[in-house]
Amino acid sequence: MNKVTAIFDSLLLLLLMQPSLAQVVDGEHVDAELIAETATAVPGEILWTAVRLDHIEKWHTYWINPGDAGKATELSWQLPAGVTAGAMVWPTPERFELPAELVDFGYTGEVFLLVPLSIPADFTGSTLTVSAQAAWLECEEICIPSGADLNLTVPVTTQTPASLNTDWQYGFAQTRSSQPRDDITLDASFSINNGAIELLVQATENIFENARTITFIPDQHRILDYNAEQQLTTQLSSLQLRQSYNRRVEREVPERVGGLLLVTDADGQELAYQVDAEPAGVNTNQLGGVMAATSNTGAGSGGNSDMALGTVFLLAMLGGFILNLMPCVFPVLSLKVMSLSAHSNYSHYQQRMHGLSYAAGVIIAFLALAGVLLTLQASGAAIGWGFHLQTPWFVGALVFLFFVMGLSMSGVVEFGTGVMGVGTNLQDKEGYTGSFFTGVLASVVASPCTAPFMGQHLALRSRRQ
Length: 465
Fold this sequence. Notes:
This protein is elongated. Strand 9 (127-139) and strand 10 form a beta hairpin. The chain starts with a helix and ends with a helix. It folds into 3 domains: 19-167, Thiol:disulfide interchange protein DsbD, N-terminal domain (Immunoglobulin-like, Sandwich), CATH 2.60.40; 186-301, Immunoglobulin-like, CATH 2.60.40; 309-464, no CATH class. Helix 6 (348-378) packs across helix 10. The protein has helices at residues 2-17, 169-177, 289-295, 309-323, 330-342, 348-378, 392-409, 424-427, 432-446, 451-464, and strands spanning 30-36, 46-55, 61-67, 74-78, 84-85, 94-98, 102-107, 110-118, 127-139, 143-155, 186-193, 196-203, 213-218, 231-235, 238-244, 257-264, 270-282. The protein contains 10 helices and 17 strands. Strands 13-16-17-11-12-15-14 form a 7-stranded mixed β-sheet. A 4-stranded antiparallel β-sheet has the order 1-2-8-5. A 3-stranded antiparallel β-sheet has the order 3-7-6, with no helix packed on it.
């Protein structure tokens, strides 16, 4: 009897461990079913599920932002007590250009819409049964509302980790691989100017270098004119994108501009990045009173709360003192130290004049750099303060220059003219000219150190002009 009972229990356990087949709902244009990533569910763990939609040829359903016309797929869950459903994970959508100059975003073929289910640790059932009512709009040249009642039953076990459901493993993996990268941070802002939204993006890595294509897909409805051309300017880790806005923007100012930035690299691989841009400026001459009121609230929106000139100079001096404590300034300070030691035997009047000449070189160099920066930004270039040190040839030239200067200062090699003539001959000149060009050289090298203080301010000012 004991052997019979043991065999019966074993057979029952094996039966429970077999994953239940999901019920496929056959539609006229889209088939649907609710599936699980693992063969079993574990109390206290996450069970990843997915609504699998299989479209017939030429038909599609929609992304979270459907575009000009359409409706995103929606789910309404019926779950056991204590089980909760998380936010849907959307795969990267496709772009559809339809008749009547409509542009939509959605999916064709087979697609997996992932949803995590949180199972409480005190769940005691032997099986987990969940249901979801799915509703979507399926379209070719015409659109038809459709949907399905989906059900899924999964055995519950304490075995961890749960074994993967090999039938659907590829679909879950493919959806996850299309998600935006989370190892690279994008700092983004947007401004509204001359009938268009301008998106500025700064990445922590050179993700735009050698990119084949770059496309931005907004996750908000009626922000951009989808038919309008996306004008792009890139430089290593910086991007500026300009696109005409939807007419609705004239009535309602967006609090953010977000979406997916799709970058196809040199190897042909498409990578997605999440963009969440905050407002940085609005041209009030182009929009109505609502837009003008919004643009005048706060410095972050391009407001007109200008500080007094004296306060600006005071904060500039404070910033200068702080900059002297930054590691990137230390090599530059050596230039001034060498200059002071060379003038130690001069009269007080001459020392003051050398100091004023050095300061004049710094000020004029920074004014020239700021002028070049603002001119290039006004012409559409996506660059920031210290942009010259993002140029490989310029960085290479500075490395060579400082290496040669180090040899000269250490007494290893003495240079009169020749290779040092490009930069060091100017800063080595006798008299006030030498002090002036020492300040110029220090400014050119140290300008990126001012980025935390001047970069964003210059960008905002340039957008307000």
